[in-house]
């Protein structure tokens, strides 16, 4: 039960921080830009599972994972250059 709460906290914090950072709410299937709905929650859930497997999770680390996931999704195009939308 505690693990599910940690997943929920990471998910909610990633969505909230993504919205605060000004990411788009809906995602475009023809674009590689990150949005609040994709890939931000999936990055947060994956990182939560990875950190939960490697070390012990608590609420603070779940919030930090959510913040990191939203910042990573926001700047993914700058971290991994070369993926451009060719139209």
Automatic annotation (TrEMBL):
Main location: membrane
GO cellular component, one term: plasma membrane
A Pfam family recorded for this sequence: NiFe_hyd_3_EhaA
InterPro entries: Prd_NiFe_hyd_3_EhaA (IPR011306)
TM helices/strands, residue ranges: 7-27, 47-72
Cellular compartments annotated: Cell membrane
Family note: Belongs to the EhaA family.
Subunit structure: Putative multisubunit membrane-bound [NiFe]-hydrogenase eha is composed of at least 20 subunits.
The protein's name: Probable [NiFe]-hydrogenase-type-3 Eha complex membrane subunit A
Protein species of origin: Methanococcus maripaludis (strain C5 / ATCC BAA-1333)
């Amino acid at each position: 039960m505690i693990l599910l709460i940690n997943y929920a906290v990471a998910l909610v914090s990633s969505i909230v921080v993504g919205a605060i950072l000004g990411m788009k709410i809906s995602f475009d299937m023809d674009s590689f830009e990150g949005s609040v709905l994709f890939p931000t929650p999936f990055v947060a859930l994956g990182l939560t599972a990875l950190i939960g497997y490697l070390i012990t999770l608590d609420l603070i680390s779940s919030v930090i994972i959510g913040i990191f996931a939203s910042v990573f999704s926001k700047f993914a195009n700058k971290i991994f250059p070369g993926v451009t939308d060719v139209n």
